[in-house]
Amino acid sequence: MLKRAKCVLLLTIYAFRSWNYFQATTFTYNFIKTEIVEVKAGLPQRRSSLTSHILLVNEMAKTNCDKPHTQVWIALKRLDQNDERVIALREVRITRDAEVATIKQLISHSFGLASQVTLKIRNSQGSLIPLNSALPANTKQRPHVLEVAKTFQHVTPKPRLVAMTVIHKSLKSRLQSAVRRIERLEELLPQIKLQHHEEMNKDIELLNQKLIFLHKRMKMADSRCWKGSIVKPPLW
């Protein structure tokens, strides 16, 4: 098992050849320190975690060698352990255009953090900044602060302001109102059909009157004939 740990260490140093050797060694050492004990115990999920670490190294080595990067100093606070002190300070290499999930996984492995925690990062002025590939470069004297918290650690759920019985009564009254409106429409449906039929008959009768008037005009136009001379002389 120690031979396996040494292999992972050498693999990390080789894969991150564009990184400095101190950071590559620190990256792997922190992972081994938190994971290798459970690997010795034979836990399958830790073996898969070790495999994911090797895959992460290979993936980052492929994507990071030729791309611009930013050296970022990050200080760690374990708020999930009710400790507001800075307990670790490390330099992390962030590749431009890297995905957020990859950056979070890289930082988690660098500090040996579990995957079931919430990560928040603040600049040297204490303001929250997005944890992505656009993290600004800084110095060791003014690092970013990574706060590790439990899920919903700083959220206190409040009791429901509206009881479920009130919601049920409201929904029931709305449903009954809709049912009454539908029943009323069903009662008025025969009257609506009758009114529609009467309006249609009126429209048809009006069209018939217009057609009769047009037919008379056409007959009057057809009855005109030429008698061979102008009955009324023109006005010129």
Question: Can you characterise this structure?
Answer:
The chain is an alpha+beta fold and 236 residues long. It has 3 domains: 1-66; 67-157, Ubiquitin-like (UB roll); 160-213. 53% of the residues lie in helices and 14% in strands. The protein is built from 5 helices and 5 strands. A 5-stranded mixed beta sheet has the order 2-1-5-3-4, covered by helices on one side. The longest helix is centred in the last third of the chain and has 59 residues, at 164-222. Mean pLDDT is 76; it is low at 17-22 and 43-48.
Q: Which structural category fits the helices and strands?
A: alpha+beta
- What is the strand arrangement across the widest sheet? 2-1-5-3-4
Work out the oligomeric state of the chains in this entry: single chain
Give the helix proportion (percent range).
Answer: 40-55%
Percent of residues in beta strands: 5-15%
* Residue runs with pLDDT of under 50 for 5 or more positions: 17-22, 43-48
CATH class of the largest domain: Alpha Beta
Shape: elongated
Any idea what the radius of gyration is? Answer: 42 Å
Largest sheet: 5 strands, mixed
Along the chain, the helix and strand elements come as: HHHEEHEEEH
SS field, number of helical segments: 5
Compute the separation of the termini in Å: 127 Å
- Count the strands? 5
- Return the average pLDDT rounded to an integer: 76
Number of domains: 3
CATH fold group of the largest domain = Ubiquitin-like (UB roll)
Coiled coil: 168-217
Keywords: Coiled coil
